[in-house]
Specification:
This protein is α+β, with helices and mostly antiparallel strands and 675 residues long. It folds into five domains: 3-65, Helix Hairpins (Orthogonal Bundle); 89-319, DNA ligase/mRNA capping enzyme (D-amino Acid Aminotransferase, Chain A, domain 1, 2-Layer Sandwich), CATH 3.30.470; 324-403, Nucleic acid-binding proteins (OB fold (Dihydrolipoamide Acetyltransferase, E2P), Beta Barrel); 438-583, DNA polymerase, domain 1 (Orthogonal Bundle), CATH 1.10.150; 598-674, Rossmann fold (3-Layer(aba) Sandwich), CATH 3.40.50.10190. It is built from 24 helices and 24 strands. A hairpin with a 7-residue loop joins strand 17 and strand 18 (391-395). The chain is globular and about 95 Å long. Bound molecules: ligand D41. Ligand D41 is lined by residues 85-87, 118, 120-121, 125, 141, 178, 230-231, 293, 295, 312, 315.
Amino acid sequence: MPASINHKIASKIEQLREQLRNHAWRYYVLDDPEVPDAEYDRLYRQLQQLEQAHPELLSSDSPTQRVGAQPLTTFAQIHHQQPMLSLDNVFSEDELTAFDRRAHERLHSDAPIDYAAEPKLDGLAISIRYEQGQLIYAATRGDGNTGENVTQNIRTIESVPLKLLGDDFPKVLEVRGEVFMPKAGFEKLNQQARRNGEKTFANPRNAAAGSLRQLDPRITANRPLSWYCYAVGVVEGGQLADTHSAMMQQLKQYGFPVCAEAQVVKGVAGCMAYYRQLLARREQLAYDIDGIVYKVNAISQQQLLGFVARAPRWAIAHKFPAQEEMTEILDVDFQVGRTGAITPVARLKPVFVGGVTVKNATLHNMDEIRRKDIHIGDRVIIRRAGDVIPEVVKVVISRRTDRVREVIMPTKCPVCGSVIEQLEGEAVARCTGGLFCEAQRAQAIKHYASRKAMDIDGLGNKLIEQLVAGNTIQTPADLYTLSVSRLASLDRMAEKSAQNIVNAIDNSKQPLLSRFIYAMGIREVGESTARHLAENLMSLDALMQADIETLQAIQDIGPIVAQHIVTFFQQRHNREVINKILAAGVVIQNPEKVAVDNQPLQSKTFVITGTLPSLSREQAKTLLLHAGAKVSGSVSSKTDYLLAGEKAGSKLTKASLLGVTVIDEATLKQWLAKD
Ligand code: D41
């Protein structure tokens, strides 16, 4: 290849690399991308193709070369030319005030000190060395003097520049920062691990540490790691700014991501305001933080203050209340939720965590208990993040004694005594008490009264909750005992509205069988299943007596729904509630009671397609169902009629092929009017 062409390609390649670095910088560092992701991907692929065609032009600082190195067998040691210091902690305003006073004394100054305040990220400290703007190596903090060479892994983090931007940087520059895993990435990673039956990470910090300590960089590359820089180490052949905050802005220009929450504040008062503000926003941040770091902002003052032992006198970490603590599981109880779901709850030896005393933690379900190997009497790590329900992170197995007991799921509901069932393939166990179980009452009554069920006008959710809480009603059957005077005695209830509600209850007393079945709130029996049940069994009695085989013979009813139905009616409480409802004067309209001549299209199967002139497809479907027809979604040899409108497509073609009669809306209306 002529040298001039190769030269052209080389400069095209370098141009693409520059563009990609610049886009990545705007995306990761400035948080202000100039082009959409698709444009970045396009440039990236273009570069990849050119590099593949010209391997002699490959360079390790190319954006395509983040992953590529072979797995290591061990991590080599790296000696930090300038030690990585540690941070002292304070836990209160008093301790912070003492820190600030000592600084004033050493500086011989009364003027409030400017502090650069920034979140203390909960990750791993690393140091990355650049020479002539090229990434040379990256090392963990280790003991502060010697760390591990994790260059291959650090290179895979997209926000780590492989080459610095511009040409105005110090010739040797060590940048220090924290590698972390954002919460969203952590959740996703754990979800994936759970799906694959692999071990999950207890928290984002562990996940970040585990990801960085991979010998195979291809694994690290697939972990959602990020980082922010917060200090420099060795700086040679160049000058940095004379305050911490200005220096961070400079680093940003070189291509390094810095935390957007950083702020310069004045004195202890400024620090405390910043601390409170961030503590309140802790849960909203995209990453875990465990406190605030305050750094004396002026580098000249930092130099005057120097450091003691291993920590600077010019910086301090102000820790937030811990979100994780160790305690003991005293017992495990089982709670019944609004839908009957049984949730195991750990009763804990009270422990102060996340700023409050915690006595209970959710254990989610039995699978979770098995997966985490939780026993009564175990020592466990509890996590309470924000207002989220406290959770057991893991068991401290090394502290387990032989006095621990297994957690056993009860067979009867602790609230109502009904059978608890757990279906194949489901994580949650449920109380089958349905209409009877107190824990499920309000929910069951709301469903019963809802528009698609008994359609009791004016009986809103709030009112139902009020009635259940006051123990005025316990089951849907009690609705029929409500009097105007009782309702009118409730808060914010006028006599007139009370009367309206009693009327609405009265007016709802003749439901179609399908609606009544739906209103029972049997698990997984929705509107359409209820309709199939009604059409096939024709009476509530028949439904209550149906066995699994009978039920499964009905369209759309599989073994699971069939089992739900049988279990529901096996519960004596449910049968009692139904009897009371019937005794209160509810008369179910069975399909057979509707005169056959009112069902002109009895058992004819229709398919609807295209746009009808006046009816929506949903309205046409309702008309057909009321006339006794079945409505199916696709044309087959079993289809009797295709109701077709404008723009009918493949269904019309198929219907003609199969010889299915095609009718229009006008014809349908004629048929229905005639009979
Ligand atoms: O976010 C952090 N975890 C963080 C850690 C931070 N924002 N600033 C830090 N500053 C320092 C000094 C002042 C010593 C340069 C640090 C750490 N050190 C640190 N991280 C781990 C040990 C020390």
